[in-house]
Prior knowledge:
Layout: E1 6-9, H1 13-24, E2 27-33, E3 38-45, E4 48-55, E5 67-71, H2 75-84, E6 91-97, E7 100-106, E8 112-118
Parallel strand pairs: 1-4, 5-8
Antiparallel strand pairs: 2-3, 3-4, 6-7, 7-8
Amino acid sequence: MGFCWCTIKVNDMEESLDFYMDIVGLQVERRLEAGPDREIVFLDGGETKIELISGKDSDVNIGKDISIGFTVDSIDNKMEFLQGRGIEVLEGPFRPNPTVAFFYIKDPSGLRIQFVEKN
């Protein structure tokens, strides 16, 4: 069995696409209309797959204890990159042991995004 994707309901598809493409580094795999006033976009980052869903009837309800983590080469470089785009670090950076460091931001719909550096 393999992991397919993570589905995220979003408030604004274009704003979320900008975030996941520019900030996270994912690319659009496919984009489709799924009925009146509903759109689905699948994003691809190699092994990472995300499905974004927007629509007038989509209530976005993000749990406060849920986050999605992405690896980066350097959290320091990523934090500098985010600062240049006016994105605030929500929590961190944390270094729980000598081989891992991470921090959190929020996506446009309020989902916690974790960037992780593994040495």
